Amino acid sequence: xxxxxxxAKTASPTEDKTGKTEPKPVKKSATDGLLTKADTKPQFQxxxxxxxxxxxxxxxxxxxxxxxxxxxIIVLGAIFSLQGGGFGLxxxxxxxxxxxxxxxxxxxMTGGISPIKTGISVALAFIIAVGPYAAIMIVPTNASMAVxxxxxxxxxxxxxxxxxxxFSEADAKIFVDDEQVWSGSKSMNxxxxxxxxxxxxxxxxxxxxxxxxxIKEYSIEVESSDGQxxxxxxxxxxxxxxxxxxGTRISKVLKTGNRQGSDxxxxxxxxxxxxxxxxxxxxxxxxxxxxxxxxHTLDNLGLIAVTSDYTFTMTIKEGTSIAYTMxxxxxxxxxxSWSSTFSGTQTxxxxxxxxxxxTALNDQSTEYLQKEDFYGEDGCYTFEIEITNQYYVGDTASxxxxxxxxxxxxxxxxxxxDGQMTTC
Length: 424
What we know:
Blueprint: H1 2-18, H2 30-52, H3 62-82, H4 89-109, H5 115-138, E1 145-153, E2 158-165, E3 169-176, E4 179-187, E5 192-198, E6 218-224, E7 229-233, E8 245-260, E9 266-282, E10 308-318, E11 321-325, E12 329-333, E13 335-340, E14 344-349, E15 354-355, E16 360-361, E17 367-370, E18 379-389, E19 398-408
Antiparallel strand pairs: 1-2, 2-5, 3-4, 3-6, 6-7, 8-9, 9-15, 9-17, 10-11, 10-12, 10-18, 12-13, 13-14, 16-17, 18-19
Helix pairs in contact: 3-4, 3-5, 4-5
């Protein structure tokens, strides 16, 4: 028996090494189980450790943060580049290098660098960050300077504009047609310089005529300290500031009264109590004129309103004698104001027909001039407007006068017996 057991013991190792025969089931001891578990546990821990090295599910995604930061830095470089080189090419390139470095590092942390992906990222970053700078260097020099924000300040009576560009100083001039009327210089501050020019120092007459055609050109010419030069036109509406034309129209105001008739009965009658008066100022055709009945040929569409500073006064004459003078109307921009003897301070817009001050109110609550305040007897009455333009060369005011006249013949008792308001 012992011989057979010895033979079996020597055969077992050979069978395990060759693997040619199935091992017989052997009852494992407690010690064998512990050894098996100890052998497998380190292998599991190694796999788990490898997965945790690329990302921590409980912590921030570092590669994604680095990638996002890289593109933000590149966009910042583009902003610097858009300043026209004001920060310098070296600064732009340093910012670009930081952004690309951040992107490449994020790729390393995610398992290696892809040459194709990296090449595309670098090319795109270079275009975004350095492209604007390169464009400024390639395009004509005038593209790196500009005249902007040309505007009128009606309160200060100035024309303003801004020069932009990457240079130290700007010399500006204003021309009317080919004649220089103003010049000034400013140092650049943050790539800009603001100029304010008094309108009275440059105004040489209207840019537009009554047909809206440009008859006088105003322009700004700027030369930079590095030799660049640019010209910009001034809006002709800004430099059409002299009122040359005006007109008047009138309409009767009728009132109803009661009186005792010849038969002793109370009767109603209608009489003329005065006129509403409207004025229009600006630029319009010299062929516009007064019409029979108190009207005028001009409508609002035929007017070019003048944005400026001026005053005008209406005087009513009976023949050659002054019958009534209205309060002066002051205009700033297009805003008209006056002080009425009847209702105090009043305002309106000088871009069309404007109701004039009066001494009473009609049924529509519009002021009108009562008959008793200016009318003496029938005859030719002239409504004269005198315009005083405030801003002209050397602050010398220019004055223009217009007149519209009608025959006024009003019956005391019956408006139906009034004479026709024909022009005279």
